[in-house]
Structure formats: structure tokens, C-alpha cells
## 1
Amino acid sequence: MRRSFADAFGASVTYLANHFAWFGTSKHYDTLTQTFRHTPVGDFNAHHYRYAPGRSTFIVETDEATFARAGFARMEDAESRSLCQKIFADALGGHPLISNNSIWRRFPQVWNSRWHHGKYVLIGDALHTAHFSIGSGTRLAMEDAIALDRTLAEHGDDVASALPAFEAARRPIVEKLVTGANASAAWYERFAEHMALAPAEFAMSYITRSGRIDIERLRKLSPRFVARYERERG
């Protein structure tokens, strides 16, 4: 639908430079954690978190230059999975990576300046994408659907007034989250540069990457960490 009415929606799709592949693993991770690795061919990071008993998501990400040097574009799925498993062997603790259409992709940043056209309306990833590093894509889609259902119920058969009301209610919320997601995505686009920082500076850079947490808020949440950060910075 977005493609059919791209001009009417003011649709845009841009792709980030980093490449990522979405694997699974039998390794159990209690919470979202990250592993960053420097290798002879370049730098990698992995986002890993539990999604079911005995199963975790394991997203491997790398920059464009490393992707090319490693030769991932020429590899079969099994070879690509094997190399990633080797790179993150310690983080996996002997557990294998599991493929499920684990192709290498670049993240699409989708946005539409107008959310509806005639009787048509966009929600979820068709309307806006939020980088996987903030984990809000599914949440935003479900909340869009709930808000649309509620607005349609309030306006009865008057679709012409319901759709603008839906957009007016949801747009400020979505824009705030997508702005944070885009800032987080920009941080990951340069994650290799951040890896050169001292540990406390790296952690601070990571925690504040989306702009949703500043140092004063963090001081209340984690005073010992902020004290260490400020002490090490001198």
C-alpha cells in the first residue's frame, strides 16, 4: 500500500550502512546484553537476549568495510553462521548459532510524512521503523493498532475524521520514540569508533546514545557508575 501511494503518503526509505544477520541460539541470556569484538578483519558486535526458555536472539552486526573484508556476500548461510559462531565463541559459551533465514541485511529507516490517504492508513513498520537496538518495533506496531481501533470506534463510520484523529493522537508519541531509535542507530553506525574509548566512557556513550537518559538522570539511577565515570575523566 505504501508503495502504491508513495507520493500521497510522502514515503521515504533509507538504508543504514551497517550489515546485520538475525540468528538464534540455545544459550540463555537473562537480559539484553552486548558483546563487542575486534578481529583481524574488523569489528563486530552482537545483541543477545532471551525470547523463550532455552532460546535467545543473537543479532550479529558489522560495518560495511568489515563485511566486505570478511567476504560474507560470497558465503553460503552455513559458512556465514560458522564464522560468526567462531567470532563470538566465548559469548556463546559452547552453544551453537541457529539459522532461520539469517540473511545479511541493512536496516531500512521507513518514514511517511502523511499517515493516511483517502480510506487507507498505515501503521507499524509500514509507517515507521524503529532500530532494533531499542527493541520497540513490535510495541509501536501494537500500540498503533490499538489506537487506530479505539479511534475508529469513537468515530463510527466517519473514516474521514477518524484517520486524522488517529494520526494527531499517535504522531507525538511515535516521533519521540523514532527520534530516540534513530539516534541509537547512528551510534551503532560508528560503534567501531566507540570501542576505542576507555571502559567508563564507552559505557556512558552507550547508555546515553538515544538521548532518552542524560547524566543527571543516570546519577539518580546509578550513582556509583557516574562517580566512577567522573573520577576517571578527571
## 2
Amino acid sequence: MKTYENHSLLPYNTFGIDVDASYLVEYDSEEELVQLLQLDLLRENKFLHIGGGSNLLFIGNYQGVILHSHIMGIEVKKTTETDVFVKVGAGVVWDDFVAYCVAKNYGGVENLSLIPGEVGATPIQNIGAYGVEVKDVIYKVECIEVETGQKRIFTNPECQFAYRNSIFKHQLKGKYIVTAVWYKLSRNPQLNVNYGSLSDEIKKYPEITLQSVRNAVISIRQRKLPEPKVLGNAGSFFLNPVVDKAHFEQLQQQYPNMPFYAQDDNKVKIPAGWLIEQCGWKGKSVGKVAVHGSQALVLINKGGANGLDIINLSDSIRASVREKFQIELTPEVNLIFG
């Protein structure tokens, strides 16, 4: 366990926001986490658990304790004729795990290649891309209850997964800390390449394999998303809105080329990036921040911006979309106030 005082969070957030935390504590095991939760340091201060910082926007210095997991390890726990069950430490970099699965010919996460962050965040956010959500492969989630230090295991249904959502994000927010995630992966992969730009990109490869799907996804993401070390960003800043079918049909009469994805319960998902682009924001700069020129969902720190600069740009974009389409955009990024 390592504890740092008045520590810079610049390396711990991909937006490149230069703020400090009163304390930063990193731990290496479940046992250390349990000990840590009993310390006065956490009992007397507010605290926030972070992963890779790829889905955070700090609005100012954090007057409390930042916790970060270094629980590592990838372990095959069970193998059947069709599936393999793998336990992964919360501190493992997500894309390192995806690379491991592809190398082992374990299918299910290849479409989620190059998503930033760590394994512990995947069940909280229910990360997804190119027609796949991580809920499709999560078997169970190991956690420590903050209040008691007791271990609890959540089954997939108990996680109450929804679009970019889970029980950990709302009802149980801040009450449990993920220490490991078990994934159920396929030994006979059924590849999903029919979603959006992936269906075109995969045609560049002589055959469709786990590795070619991974390579295609990486290629698309690298074209669309800037490298955070060069231009600070948190990937997609907004969720793709889901609207009533009747509202969508009204909009479709005015915008017949509007892309969409039909959902259950007479709902339709509309790409937020398309809405933002139609409002003229793609590639537009405002001071030290901007909307990325290749992907309108991505807000970037051009250098020296603070959290409020990003928030103000976000609010302006949301107002434009609201006025033009009567659709409310919701940030996917977590806003952290001091």
C-alpha cells in the first residue's frame, strides 16, 4: 500500500486536467483494501475510487482521498467444451486483457479493443462498442463492501446491467469497490462484424478472425479518437440518446438520412455524434478546448484547459442539440467536483 499527500492527478486522468488530491492511496490486494477501509484516513475524509481515469472530468482539486487499485492477474478458473471462465484483477488494463483473450482465441471482447481504462470499471460502466456490451460476457463481479469490509459476489443479473449502466452506478454507487471480474468467454467464437463502420473496415482483411476484428476495431478507433497524451480527452463525452419511436419518426420526416438503431419497447437510439455534427460543432474550437474534427462525440483539451472549460463547451453543445432536435444529451463522463 502506498500513500501520497497533495499528489498531482495529471497522470490519473486522460483529459489532462492538472489538479491535486489531498491524498492518493494505491493498494495491491483485496486484503490491503479491507485494511485501508478501516483507517481513520478514509473514515475522516471523503474518498473516490478511480481506475484509469478515462471516464473522469475533475472540475477542481479533490479535497479528499483518491483510491486506485493495483490488483493484477489474469487466471483461467474453469474450462468447458464451449466456454472458458477467466478471473481478472480490477487493476489490469482493459485492453491488455482483450489482447490476452484474442491471443488465446477466447471470443467475446474483441469488439471492445482499445477502450481505455481498467478492468474494475467495466461492470460499473457496462462498456460497449460496435454492437457488443461487456454485460454479454461478465459472469460475476467480486466486490468489497465499503461500510463493512465484507466480500460480496454479484452475479450478472444482480448487476442490473443496462445501456452504459449498472447497479454500481446508481443504487449502490460508492457502496462497493470492485476487486475482480469473472468473464465467460467462448472457445468457439461467433464474430460480430455487422455494426456501423466495422462492417466496412473488416472487408480490408483476407479473413474474419478474432485478430482481424481486433485489428479493424483498433484501426477505426485510432482514426477517430486522438491519443490522450497528445490531446487530452475521455473518448465519447456523451451517451447516444434513446428516444421514443414517435419522436424519432417526427425527426425522420425532417432528416430522412438520420442514422438510427431500433431498440426494444418502441425506442430508437440516435448517434449523439451525428446530432452534434448537424449543429455545426464538429472541429470547432472554443479557447483551450474543442470538438474533435474526426469524431464529434469527443471533446478535447488542446492544452492548459481546466474542467470548467470542458463543462462550458459541453453545455453549449447540449443547448444546440436541445434546440434543434428537442433531444437532451447526457454526459457519459463522470464529473468530479472538489
## 3
Amino acid sequence: MTFVLKEILVRQSKAAIVGAGIVGLAHAWSAAERGCQVTVFERNSRASGASIRNFGMIWPIGQPHGENYETAMLSRTRWLRLSTEAGLWVNPCGSIHLAHRPDEWIVLQQFRERAEFLGIACELLTPEEVQRRTPAANFHGLLGGLYSPTECCVNPREATRSIPAWLAAKYGVTFHFETHIASVESIGDDMCGRTNVRVTTSLGDCEHFERAIICCGADMQSLFPNVLASSDMKRCKLQMMSVRGHGTGWTLGPHLASGLTLRHYRNFEICPGIEDLRKRISDETPELDHFGIHVMASQNNHGDIILGDSHEYGADIEPFDKASVDELMLRELRKILQLPDWTVAEHWHGFYAKHPTLPVFEATPEPGIHLCTGTGGAGMTMSFGLAERMWDRWTDSNPFSFPFSFPTSFRWNKD
């Protein structure tokens, strides 16, 4: 007896991404590479949140060793892929932490001693070696620097707004801009046993998916507010600025960071001298702690020097920017940098959500629905790696949640 089955269609798995910031784009890319049919919903006409209001730093050196650092390095690899495949400007410029105070130099030395055993690439530089790598370091009082080769620079405005076109062209990802999502809900399994997630726009249009990833950024009230309210995340406001450097041929070289930065990033907590450094800063300049100021500089592909930044949290956040905060940042930046022109061309602020201990906040409030936010100030650094880790975990744990290849028709012969 012969049984013939013809044209058995296997429907491609569908994934919805809510939010076209860098976290949402990272998930869209990872899902599309795994064969998903991806639709991205974005309420604005283009990305305009934290994903474009940052230094453009891919900053593995700021992540604690272990899984966080490895995830940052995975992100770096994917950024470099984008440079080749999508034609994005990605500059593997590296970074230098500058030490102008003895306690800063002690912490850098302690970190270098430990980094060798942790697999973190870095080296100590003399003041003369710093000068050979960058014309921007203030040589007066400079004790040395810590160079790391792993950091990259991107132009966040251009990258975040051009990646959608590349995803659409290469993977067929669908983007719905200026589309506000009213609800995302799991409504049981479909006839094939797949999770059925209904996404409804504010206009009442509905579409069904097997999985939805909510990447709301700092807007924690749009969808699943109760979950986010109990997450321990805080909203953070930062102030930044830029000075024009195009047309002069002057280049910053690597990203530059002051000793103030050592107290901000958790990777330096392995250094015994960090508490003395923190106490000295708190005693001498409590205003910097009050506004969470630590200063850094990067240069984009147009020559603009991006400077910042500050951190205000929760109830301290006001919609009004403070000129005094900009002045404090410039005061500290002038201590470590010498720029050809200090004329500020742009001021801006941004908001992001930050979890006190986790590199990202994840939750699954309903089957097939995942919240992914709270990358803090490391969204550009971590998002691509985090998305890869998450999609690996989701697809490995449920082999029926992602597409698998079957022929569209086959013949079963039985005698």
C-alpha cells in the first residue's frame, strides 16, 4: 500500500519585537538568523531614545569578568560583523583609562595584575606611551594609563537608524514604525501546539505570533507595568554634550576615561584600592557623587567629540537639564583632556532603566512573552550578546519554538 502526502506546509515561526532601539534590533537580528519571521513594532517614526543618546562606546572593559565580559565580547564580534555585512562604521579604537591621581594609578595597576589571570586584555602605559596613542590626554600631572584593545566606537544615531533597512533587506524583517502597541497577551496554544501570542495595536489591529519580546527601554509603564514595578529597576537620567571636531583632521584616538570612571564600573571592584579612591572623591568633590558624574570622551565618524556624563535616579529626575551639571562635567574633563576646541555644539539628556545587580532584566509574565530591558548604560555594549544568549536558551529549551526545515512535500511509501 502506498500513502502519498503532498505539499505539507510547515509554517515559519513568527516573532514579534516591541521596540526598535538597540535591544529590540539585537533580538530581531538573532531571531531572523534562526529563521524566524520577524516583525518589529516601534511607536516612534524612528529610534529616538537611549539607543541614540550615548557615547557610541562598545565597552567590554567596563563589564565584570566572567559571563558579563564574555557577553560583551560576543556583542563586539557581532558589531564587527555589522561593519562588514551592513557597511556600518565601527571603529575598533580601544580605550585608555587615564590616571592623574596616585590612587587612580594604584587601582589601574591592581586591575592589570588581576586581568592577566581573568583573560582580560589590557596593558599599563607610561605618560609618554599615552601621548603616542592620543593627542588628547592632558600631560600635566599624568601618571599613566590602562590601555585595552577591545573597545569599539559606533555612531549610535546612524547605526540604530540604519540597521532596520539592512535587516529588512537581508532577512525580510518587517518594521511597523509609528505603531503603538496596546496589548500583548498569550491566548493559549494553536492547533499545532505552538504558543499563540496576540499583539494588538492602539488602532485595534491584531497579529498572532509564537513569541513576543518586549524591549520598552526606560518606558516601564506601557506594557506589563506590574511586572516592571516589582523588578527593583530604577529610571536613570543622564546629561551629555558634544563639541565639533570635523574638518580639522584632529583625532582623539582611543576612547578616553578619567579616574572618576573607576568607581562607576563594577569590573574595578576587584581592586583593593577602589574604596580609598571612592572615599577621596566623596570627601573632595561630593557634588560629583550627588550627580553621579564620571567623565569620558569618544569621537564619531564625523569627528564630533562626545562628552559626558551624569546620572540621576528615580525621584531625583526632573525634566529640566541643569547647566551646573554640564559645568561640572566640563570642569572635570578639562583636568584630563586637551581639545583643540571646547565650544559645545549640542546638549542633550537621555533616560534608561537600570537594574541594581543584573546586566539585563528578564521576565516571562505569560507563555511566549518575554520582557527584556534594564541594560542600564551598557545597551550598546551588551545587547547583541544578550540577545544571542537568550535566543540560544529559548530555542534549546523548546525545539518546537523555532523553525526547522522540512521539505514542502514528501512521499511515504509502505508496501
